[in-house]
Fold Potassium channel protein.
Amino acid sequence: MIILQSAMEKSNLYKVDEFGVKNYNYGAIGMLSLTLFALLNAGLGYVTFLAETSVANSPVKNYADALWLMLMSSTTIGFGDVYPITFIGRAAVFVMFILGVGILAGAGAVFANKIFGFADTNIKNRELRKQNEQIMQQNMAIHAKLEQLEKKLEFLNK
């Protein structure tokens, strides 16, 4: 577990700050997500192209059609102008539905978190708690000194 956490921190995907909060590198996560998304579209598009172009009545006529099908599947738009008719083509579209939507949703959630600042609010609350703790310690020290001064004043007034 510790080795995995250390490897993740060294991967530059996130750093743990002094409050124990994971601060994500949104640029690295965005590039990783877009790269994975592009590779998935290209790869499954190629599989669909190979499976569908060998069938006579398939609406997938070329690689561009297969790539279009994957992009429409990954975003759940699915215009219906290009659709798979083979088992392999349908399986590729199914995989794209699951993984493509998952990648886009995950990336969207990370960026929404950054835009709306949920993590920033959490960090601010931790900073305020730490400051409050320091203020309470200062107040206790001042209170102790005041008690000592009160005792000295009582002693002098006797």
Q: What stands out?
A: The beta strands are 14-16, 22-24. The longest helix spans residues 118-157. The chain has a mean pLDDT of 85. The helical segments are 2-10, 26-52, 63-74, 87-116, 118-157.
